[in-house]
Amino acid sequence: MEASIALKNVSKHFKKKYVLSNLTFGIEKGSTFAIIGRNGAGKSTFLRILSTLLKADEGILYINGNDMSKSLKDVNKVIGYLPDHDIHDPWLTGLENLKIRANYLGISESEFDSITKPLIEEFEMEDSINNYPVTYSRGIKRRLDIIQTLMGDSEIIILDEPLLGLDYSIRTVLCKYLLRQKGKKTVVIASNEFTEIQTMADRWIVLHDGGIRFDGTLEKMLTHVKMPFIGNLEIKKDGEELDNILANAKNIKEVRDFGNFVQIVTNDFEDFYKITRKIKEENITSISGNSSNIEEFLNLLLSDEGF
Amino acid sequence: MDRFWSIIITSIKFRMRKIIVELLFNIIFTILMWLGIFLSLDKIFPNTNFIQARNFLFPGIIAFYSIMISFALTSVHIRKITQLTGLMDQCRSTGFALWQIYLAKSTSMIIRIMIHIIISSIVLLILVGGGFSILYILLFWIYLGFGIFFLIQIGFVAGIYIADQEICLLLILSLILPLTIVSGSFFSIDFFHPVITKILYYFPTTVIISGARNLLVNHSFDLFHSLYILGLDITCYFLCYWVVKRKLLQ
Known about the structure:
The structure holds two protein chains of two kinds. Chain A contains eleven helices and 14 strands. Chain A is α/β, with parallel strands linked by helices. The longest helix of chain A has 14 residues, at 109-122. By secondary structure, chain B is mostly helical. Chain B has one domain (2-249). Chain B has helices spanning 2-13, 16-44, 50-84, 87-92, 98-128, 134-161, 165-185, 194-201, 204-218, 223-249. Chain B is globular and about 60 Å long. The interface between A and B is medium-sized, with 36 and 24 residues.
């Protein structure tokens, strides 16, 4: 399959510290590519290099076969980049910000409505688009910036923590939008929201210490790393009963005690379920659980040197 | 090319409300300077000839204001778009080359400051009752435009590098402000010791103020001063662009 983005020995350092070291790989056209990693792993630097806002110290970046160190022509038609920070003027209305962006992108006034209106509606910004972003909540600000990024209809969409501050319903809207682009646009997304990445990404990498620690699909990862189940229990009483249950329970990997809130890490859901059956119902305020916690995954991945 | 102009147009068109507020402050500043310097001078030195005072102080006040506002507005604006908000990325992520953004931002700043110079001059001309030739007022504005261009470049670099707003303010109040006063805005540099006068003579701010004053009042075009300013503009433009490029791309 044709590569939309290709990197050859790309490195970046700030002062003497290497943030990215010798990265070589390609991203297929029309695929959704996810990047995960701990804070400071180099995700944002990597995306800024991909979006041509930052120059790699070594190596070559190819976008659609063009060496980006030589050719920047029409890059706006190719790349739409959403940084991890705000990209709007808080003292201009949301609509004015979109008009500015449209001017930069070369979108004419006659095209403006037909391009922005569907996006404003899809991201439920109709009520706030004429207000100033200083009055927006974190999530609404993010929605405005997402619209700004998507309105260019670029071939490659690069999103740095796009889900930051978004509520469940808008997360779903963005996920649906990105799923619709599968096969048409190349999407590169950096996020620590594992559940959403699982839904969307065809392939993903884990960045750690400037290098790629994992590169592949979810299936490939699961064959190497068995994901534990993390059960969350909120209890009413002092926990003496729970302590006894946990002391006698099997297959518990770890217990994290936060007072009335306890996190129990087991091999799978079955083990957690067995524990909850032993606790009196009236003592439980809430139960929740997640089998794919990104921190757990990173812990497993990064502790396994042979992986 | 149309997209390049879009940076300049949007910088002004969508910030009209703010520019109007700026201009209101400009008018207040000009009136206060007229009250504080023109009128009080007559009380302190009753024998001062009004025409001489007007010829000396009119270009001095306008040049003083131009120098102050060009550095202050540029550094604060650039700091805002690069450090406080992601507006530089809003523009950069649409595919503009950095040199285009740098040139467009510099041009929009010079347009913005030229509006200030023109408004301030008109207000002060009304207050002092005119007395200058329109042609030389136009040449005076053009000279000031060239004069402040290099300050805009330095303001650009200051706005990108200085993270702390307080340091930026201190730089304006403790360095640019006294330097502009010492450079002969309101009194002649000839009053100083000859050594200091000699040093001040080659100060860029002195060159702007005295060159603009000579042009407006004596109708004399100082080639040395003009080439000096032009050289400074070109050098600062490329030097500051190199510094900005280093900061933003690396």
